Amino acid sequence: AQSVTQLDSHVSVSEGTPVLLRCNYSSSYSPSLFWYVQHPNKGLQLLLKYTSAATLVKGINGFEAEFKKSETSFHLTKPSAHMSDAAEYFCVVSGLDTGRRALTFGSGTRLQVQP
Amino acid sequence: DTGVSQNPRHKITKRGQNVTFRCDPISEHNRLYWYRQTLGQGPEFLTYFQNEAQLEKSRLLSDRFSAERPKGSFSTLEIQRTEQGDSAMYLCASSLGLNSNQPQHFGDGTRLSIL
């Protein structure tokens, strides 16, 4: 079965410093991996997706993620945090382990950005 | 692309009442998903439609829950005899295509509160 683990429930950074949100996945097949962001009382917005092309994926708002098969990781990074980046971030896997089309979400990482 | 639309945004009801939520997906999207998100957790898959056919239901979808997509466009999710544990954010998402790597686009959700 496929699963995803977000290693930190909360991350706090200062504005202008780098962001690292960690994610490990488990999947018997080559997975499709996504990062979504959720602002309070809003739906989820797609940041980026990995679908077996380039291992370094660039997304919106300056975020990027690197797929490392040997480490089964898909960490999200941003060189310089902005106040507007404060939100909940979800690492998500989609695949064909069970023939399912639905997404499997991690438990989320809350990013705080200090001024 | 007007996005995925969900109505109502908020629903407050007494325990034991029936509630119905509506989701209007992005117009050309053939797949529609329902998820439930409780406080502090990632979304959990409930059910999935391809066109008008309901192809998968999660074990979370008890017999009090029913979803329809009668013409392959909008969808409704009904909860009968609501219970306290049904309090959650109900999210709808849609996607296009046959591959699991197609990103899902989410609505802003319907927040259900059971008194």
Summarize this structure as a short list of keywords or feature phrases.
heterodimer, A: 115 residues, mainly beta, six-stranded mixed beta sheet, four-stranded antiparallel beta sheet, globular, B: 115 residues, seven-stranded mixed beta sheet, 11 strands, 0% helix
Descriptive notes:
Chain A has strands spanning 3-6, 10-14, 19-21, 23-26, 32-38, 44-50, 56-58, 64-68, 73-78, 87-94, 104-105, 109-114. Chain A has no helices and 12 strands. Chain A has 115 residues and is mainly β. Chain B is mostly beta strands. Chain B contains no helices and 11 strands. Chain B has strands at residues 5-7, 10-13, 19-24, 31-37, 44-50, 53-57, 65-68, 75-79, 88-95, 105-106, 110-114. In chain B, the strands form 2 sheets. In chain B, strands 2, 4, 5, 6, 9, 10 and 11 form a 7-stranded mixed sheet that branches. In chain B, strand 5 and strand 6 (53-57) form a beta hairpin. The mean pLDDT of chain B is 92. The interface between A and B is medium-sized, with 25 and 28 residues.
The shape of chain B, in one word, is globular
DSSP strand tally of chain B: 11
What gyration radius of chain A follows from the Cα positions, in whole Å?
Answer: 14 Å
The oligomeric status of these chains comes to: heterodimer
Mean pLDDT of chain A, to the nearest integer, reads 89
- Main β-sheet description of chain A: 6 strands, mixed
The largest chain-to-chain contact, stated as pair and per-chain residue counts, equals: A-B, 25 and 28 residues
Number of contiguous helices of chain A: 0
What is the molecular shape of chain A?
globular
Order of helices and strands of chain A: EEEEEEEEEEEE
Counting H and I runs of at least 4 residues, what is the number of helices of chain B?
0
* Share in β-strands of chain A: over 45%
H-E order of chain B: EEEEEEEEEEE
Distance between the termini of chain A: 41 Å
DSSP strand tally of chain A: 12
Low-confidence stretches of chain A: none
Q: Helices and strands of chain B: which structural class?
A: mainly beta
- Give the strand content of chain B: over 45%
Tell me about the biggest sheet of chain B? 7 strands, mixed
Helix content of chain B: under 10%
